[in-house]
Design a protein that fits this description.
This protein is mainly α. Helices cover 46% and strands 0% of the residues. The chain starts with 32 loop residues before the first helix and ends with a helix.
């Protein structure tokens, strides 16, 4: 199935933190090591999926911090 043409380039989510947490995800952008290293070779749809996963990881981490703060 051909990939749909995107109107905009998917931006790299790097925030310049580049430190990993205990689970191996970047503390700045929430990508895994393999996601960070292969970003340039990914299609736009693959990048969109990684960004979706990153948002999910960030929400999970924020919920985890909230429960430990109480």
């Amino acid at each position: 199935m051909p990939e749909q043409l995107e109107l905009f380039v998917v931006p790299n989510p790097c925030r310049g933190v580049c430190e990993t947490d205990a689970r191996g995800f970047c503390q700045g952008c929430y990508r895994s090591r393999s996601e960070r290293f292969s970003w340039g070779q990914m299609s736009d749809s693959q990048k969109q999926e990684v960004l979706r996963l990153c948002r999910q990881r960030e929400r999970r981490m924020l919920r985890s911090e909230k429960t430990t703060d109480n």
